[in-house]
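Consider this record:
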Amino acid sequence: MFKEHSAVMLLIDPQTGKFLDANKAACKFYGYTLNEIKKKSVYDLNTLDNDKVLMQMAMAINHSRNYFLFEHRLSNGSKRQVEVHSTPVKMGDENSLFSIVYDVSERTRIEKELIKAKEKAEESDKLKSAFLANMSHEIRTPMNAITGFSQLLKSKKIDDIKKDLFVNKINQNSMILLRLIDDIIDTSKIESGLLKLYDNAFELNNLINNIHQSYTEQKKFRDFKQVEIKTSYPYNEINIKTDSTRLRQIIINLIENAIKFTEKGHIHFGYYQEERTLIFFVEDTGIGIHKEEQNEIFERFRQVDIGSTRKYGGTGLGLAICKGLITAMGGFIWLKSEPGKGSTFYFSLPLHEVSETEKAPQDENIIQTNFKWIGKKILIVEDQISNIELIKEILKDSKADLHIAENGNQAYDMYQRVQPDIILMDIQLPDIDGYEVTSKIRKTDSDTPIIAQTAFAMEDDKRKSYISGCNDYISKPLNPELLLYKINKFIGN
């Protein structure tokens, strides 16, 4: 029975720890012949120190304990987690220790993985809770400013200077809220694998200059006046092909991150070329990041400081979005940082240069003029009353004839009846959507300009608008100057 049993069984001399006997299952498990096992002791197989093994064996002999978890060495050098049940037995006049050994390596591995998964889930839950608390704070803070200053504008006692200040504050906080919404949508797209990239040809130095110019203007009214924003890049013009919208987003995200943690000094951004790779950088003289936190900050919801005492705002999504976008674009992101001295974030992208024929045209500058479209008919397709009022207010000085349609069928009927000079087409409508209305119009009319004006603000939505037949596109919230400029392109003198 002992020799043929399928379980691993051993007889041990309690005085010396030597193996007196072993069954076939034991020989097979440890990888030794019976004679080889009899020349070994428990000290040879157990990875514990001899003193600890002796102590455990004494407990088994004294009946104080008979169940143990050990790590045993096999003949091939590998180690296995084992569960040992030992009990003293009498063999003739000699006392022996009878042990049954079970291999629990797989069970131990699974248990460790479950513990690790539980800890990770708890950590994730903690981060998500902190994220939701932060998100509530990040939404309510700009909303407080928007609603507060909007209420103050009703007062008849405020002068023009204060009125301008309040309007600027409302605009600034509206943009903060809009960026927050964009971050949430981008995170969702990256996580679900639905992120789409749209490569286009553009001149890289021009993009860098535009970002620098934007921050130079923002310094006049934002809280980073003690921080110098500077840039550097190779002198030569370089035309490349990648998703310029996403590249701009990554650079701006990294600059915004630098602004958040830099009270004074400088923020320096730009790029350089290494063979067929572009290396972008954003360097700051801010608080820096400790070595142990540097890998974690690219994870969702991770921030340098968490909790109600946080000095710095933010949702913990910005750097995770950057990493997701850069990875999708075929690059890598990394950083060098020293607490108290600052950080430099780097990211690489493969260089795809374009030929002369692919070069993008220079950006048109929006020049504000006194737009007058006397006698021109503008059809506004929009189902939200507040948006209709806003567009009417934007267009009131243009002297154009405005016609309103509040759903898709009404829009098509009015188009046929009024014969407008231009159509401002909302996309989400109560009956048929703006894409369908546009396609219907284009079956018989390829000339009337149609501008999609919509809250569907993704690059894919822009493409759908053009595919359906729109001539141009503007996303909500509407920029009044940009809307006037786009209309003027089509019906201006």
About this structure: The chain is about 40% helix and 20% strand. The radius of gyration is 35 Å. The chain has a mean pLDDT of 87. Residues 105-153 form the longest helix (49 residues).
